[in-house]
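Support request, priority: normal
Reporter: lab tech (M.K.)
Component: structure prediction queue

Hi team, I submitted a job for GIT ArfGAP 1 from Rousettus aegyptiacus yesterday, and the status page still shows it as pending. I've pasted the exact input below so you can check whether something in the sequence is tripping the parser. The sequence length should be 607 residues. Please let me know if I need to resubmit or if it's stuck on your end.
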Amino acid sequence: MSRKGPRAEVCADCSAPDPGWASISRGVLVCDECCSVHRSLGRHISIVKHLRHSAWPPTLLQMVHTLASNGANSIWEHSLLDPAQVQSGRRKANPQDKVHPIKSEFIRAKYQMLAFVHKLPCRDDDGVTAKDLSKQLHSSVRTGNLETCLRLLSLGAQANFFHPEKGTTPLHVAAKAGQTLQAELLVVYGADPGSPDVNGRTPIDYARQAGHHELAERLVECQYELTDRLAFYLCGRKPDHKNGHYIIPQMADSLDLSELAKAAKKKLQALSNRLFEELAMDVYDEVDRRENDAVWLATQNHSTLVTERSAVPFLPVNPEYSATRNQGRQKLARFNAREFATLIIDILSEAKRRQQGKSLSSPTDNLELSARSQSDLDDQHDYDSVASDEDTDQEPLRSAGATRNNRARSMDSSDLSDGAVTLQEYLELKKALATSEAKVQQLMKVNSSLSDELRRLQREIHKLQAENLQIRQPPGPVPTPPLPSERAEHASIGPGGSAHRRDRQAFSMYEPGSALKPFGGPPGDELATRLQPFHSTELEDDAIYSMHVPAGLYRIRKGVSASAVPFTPSSPLLSCSQDGSRHTSKLSRHGSGADMPFRRPGPSGVL
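Reply from support: The job had stalled in the queue. We restarted it manually and it finished. Here are the results:
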């Protein structure tokens, strides 16, 4: 491992000192905060490893440090180095900036959107451009200039490009030239160490033929990188690829092989090679996520960085994959340690069977038969206990791995079951759900209080309606004497109602007219002569008038003696004070006859 240049290492994204992580696919070193954003982007954008706590092949670590020391970061920040871009307001993130949203937005624009990479002139045929770039890459890998090859790869050159004239791939050229670091870079970008040339020889054959045995051994390791990584995750050992290419770990305990386990095993074996490879790659990505999670938690020491915003609870979405496959990849995070180990052992066993070309009728592999039977007994039962759910789910993910999806469906998928989501969308949805639940609780309380108020108002309305109905009911007849003013008013209006008040003398039944007796005469005697008891035989008499008095109902008639009136001496109707003479004097001045008759009452019978 060599480093060019004495300059101190800093984070490629925010310039923070002493970065602890490396982005293998970008050839840069990053700090802890920026690494959390890199992990959330996914392995298809940035492959990260810890510089000190992760397992590194020596040549791969050397390749990363070589790129970082030789300014590979300038490839991803090409436009930011242009003085003309300074005036546009676009700047690089600083160590003091917040991870969200400043650093995260900058890192996404830098690596995911490639916003600062040098753009080639637009051409009508993009395929021609990619082909030209791939040819340049084919020629450049024979040299040790890693930065040039990384720049070509960033522009769209294909690492597995097959040169039509020369009949080889760039990895063939690098292996023949002994360019180990170039081979490491090509493998990171997808070059296949087992791809044959026009004559059927692989890059491994080229390296051995040229005498680069260490490079050949490294290419063999790269060829079995997937199964080696899965085995190392379970037991911490890798095969030496001299005595064998596979290590099949076994579980500490075992269970009987059930019918469901056998059925799931047959379904796994029935997958096509392409679908089985996709399943294995998804499990490989999940292993990488879990290993980085363990290193992340161990290095952060429960600091403020260990938050929901920095955690990666499941594999990020890869837009190149279908929604069904992305959903299945995310559900791998729901597997517990035992279930995930069982799935890995099944994949290793099936990969070994397929690589050795054994038929499906073979119940076990010839090598390590006892170990496999032990692991299969345990693994298949636990793994296949939910495999029957696949028949009812009818998910398109069946073709991508029946056993993996069946186990995931048997668990509570919670918020990950509706489709593929990113970490940011998951956190936003979780926050929005909590807010909505709080609002629902608040609205329920308001609704309850409003319901109580409504019931109270309804009771008040019923009470008021009852009182209103009681008031509207007619009471029993209660005779009440009319006021003297009312009697005087009605007595002053004749049947025609047209006589003027000055032409008629105001008359009261309690006071006699002035023309009946001379001034000073006793008024009580004159009034008594006008009152007599009411009898039914006198209904036809003229000038009959009725009135209500406290003593009873009486009729008033002209020419009746006082002895016929049944009033007691103390009756207020017959008692007259000295005020009577004063009233009489007033009436005598306005009177017009000696004997003013009473007028017939109106329809109501009131005087």
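Residues 44 and 62 are 22 Å apart (CA to CA). The mean pLDDT is 75. Let us know if anything else looks off. Ticket resolved.
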